[in-house]
Amino acid sequence: MRVFGVSFDTADENRAFAEKFDFPFPLLCDTERELGLAFGACDSKDDVYARRLTFVIGPDGRIEHAIDTKDPAGQADALIELVKKLG
Known about the structure:
Helices cover 36% and strands 20% of the residues. The strands form 2 sheets. A two-stranded parallel ribbon has the order 1-2. A two-stranded antiparallel sheet has the order 3-4. The longest helix is centred in the C-terminal third of the chain and has 15 residues, at 72-86. The chain has 3 helices and 4 strands. The protein is globular and about 35 Å long.
C-alpha cells in the first residue's frame, strides 16, 4: 500500500509541513487545482482550501472508496480498518 497526501500548497510549503509533523508519506502539490477539481475536493481553481477527502484507489486505478474526512485525527485508524477489511 502507498499513501500520498495532496494539497494546494507549494513544494516548499508541503516540505515544511511534512517535516513539522513528521509525515512518513509524500505530500503532492496541486497548485493548479487539477486533482482537486477532478476528485471533487474543490469547485474552482480559485478555491483557497480543498475539502478533506480520502480515497482508496485499487491496483486497477479505480476508486474503491471515497471518504469525507470529518475527523482528520481519527482518519488514519478508520482507514487502516477499512484496508484490513479489503484484505
